[in-house]
Amino acid sequence: MTIGLIDTGCANIASVRFALERAGLEHVVVRDPSETGDCDRLILPGVGAAGAAMARLQDRGWPDAFRQDDRPLLGICLGMQLLFDHSAEGEVDTLGLIPGRVEKLPLSESLVWPHMGWNALQAFGQDEPLLRAVSLGEYAYFVHGFYAPVGAHTVAQADYGAEVSAIVRAGHIAGCQFHPERSGRVGARILSNFASQ
Amino acid sequence: MLARRIIPCLDVRDGRVVKGVKFRDHEDVGDIVDLARRYAREGADELVFYDIAASARGATVEPEWVSRVAREIDIPFCVAGGIRSVDDARARLFAGADKISVNTPALAHPALIDTLAREFGSQCIVLGVDSRVIDGAWRVHQFTGDPDKTLTDHRKTLDWVREAIDRGVGEVVLNCMDMDGVRDGYDIEQLAAVRAVCSTPLIASGGAGRKEHFKSVFELANVDGALAASVFHKGVIEIGDLKAYLGDEGIRVRP
Questions:
Q1: Cis bond leading into B110, ω under 30°?
Q2: Apex CA B45: angle with CA B70 and CA A180, to 5°?
Q3: CA dist B153 to B64, B142, B222, Å?
Q4: Chain A interface test: which of B7, B122, B123 (most A C-beta within 10 Å)
Q5: What would the pLDDT profile of B134-182 be if each residue is shown by its tens digit?
Q6: pLDDT-based confidence at residue A1 (cuts at 50, 70, 90)
Q7: Are B66 and B80 a contacting pair, CB within 8 Å?
Q8: pLDDT tens profile B200-232
């Protein structure tokens, strides 16, 4: 089992790489779809803004590669948001692998923006492989200002003024809005689940 | 719903963790990675590392220990001290820091905030503010890592927090200097005043001495997180006990 960790060049991938090391999960850093031959699953980590990240992915031919791929793919944070059709962050079209749009978290008097901190994972089914041995109400670390509203592909959610998709899945493609690499034991469990699903 | 965060702060000088009283008289309290690992295990929600002398001596924090911490711990952490440029910030973020915090260099060049937020996103840019009352108003201070170089800035604290948020910071850590290290409780009045103008997460710093102080600052100043150093370093408060107490008092914390 080898995980290909996609380096778009504008992302901090050190945290994810270290988390995979701590969990003892074999991985290689890949910059281009042609480098993924030895990988049996892929992680698209998240950083920066949607527009810049999409431009980098397009430069390397990732959007077409993802459409033709059937290996498990896990998007993290911005990487999850890019899986959808469109992002309101810069109004950019994204990868279109999961139907739906990413919106700005609503501003309110009682909640600060962005959504930053540990929030409880809610409302999920027991059949989601990423959530094996994770309990309802356990906390994960979120940092984001845009979000995927809860929809048909949501398999776990968090409450922050809006109902935020915490984990989404469409077949072999999944994403976490939170950072499993910074979510303590819960996050390490989710990464291990991804590696063994 | 979101949990309130408990954040041990590790002041770093020459690669070791130190702690002073009112920013003076620093004593060695241990190895960076040993302490980071211990706090993560005890239930800390996040860690902040301040290279307290970096701004004053003109040096920047060393990415080498940032990477060592990132490798070892599985909770988020922020690095502060002497970050003056996009390159300084990038080195720390790419070494595995989740956030970087700016203080003195942002006061000298406020446009640094705009540049950093545009380059890396507001979510990883934190504003550190050292503040105390001077002539009847809360005012910002610079170079607080070295008492001989500390300066009172012309800006009022509330104005500076507003400006920095407009420029793109995604979180504010307010260190109330008169309370620092004396364990008499957080400066509720000042924190509540800053809360009223702060639309990003706000972290309280300076004054924690007892578990009740944490309860008060969450209930009365409505901060998102509470930072403390000496009570954790010296074992006066154990993080697991603190979180159990806060949970019993009806404050939402991550168990």
A1: no
A2: 60
A3: 32, 7, 27
A4: B123
A5: 888 999 988 776 667 777 878 999 999 999 999 999 999 999 988 877 7
A6: confident
A7: no
A8: 999 999 999 999 999 999 999 999 999 998 899
Q: Calculate the CA B135 to chain-centre distance.
A: 25
Query: Catalytic pick from A27, A39, A77, A89?
Result: A77
Q: Which of B51, B88, B130, B224 is catalytic?
A: B130
**Bridge partners for A27 per DSSP:** A3
pLDDT digits (tens, 9 = 90+) for A153-171: 999 999 998 899 999 999 9
Q: Which residues of A touch B200 (CB under 8 A)?
A: 112-114
- What residue ranges do the domains of chain A occupy? 3-196
Distance CA A168, CA A175 (A): 5
ipTM of model: 0.90
- CATH number 3.50.50.60 given to A3-196: no
DSSP letters of B214-247? HHHHHHHH--SEEEESHHHHTTSS-HHHHHHHHH
- From the candidates A89, A115, A118, A122, which should be mutated to test the interface with B, based on the most B CB atoms within 10 A? A118
In which residue are the tokens 């300066």 written?
B151
Average confidence (pLDDT) over A44-67? 90
Do residue A118 and residue B124 have CB atoms under 8 angstroms apart? no
Chain A environment of B199 (Cβ under 8 Å) = 107, 112-113
CA–CA separation, B147 vs B143, rounded Å? 8
Percent of chain A with pLDDT over 90: 82
pLDDT band at residue A12 under the 50/70/90 scheme: confident
Strand stretches in B70-210, DSSP E = 77-80, 99-102, 125-134, 137-142, 151-156, 171-176, 202-205
d(CA B190, CA A34): 56
Confidence (pTM): 0.92
Q: Which superfamily does CATH assign the domain made up of B5-248 to?
A: Aldolase class I (3.20.20.70)
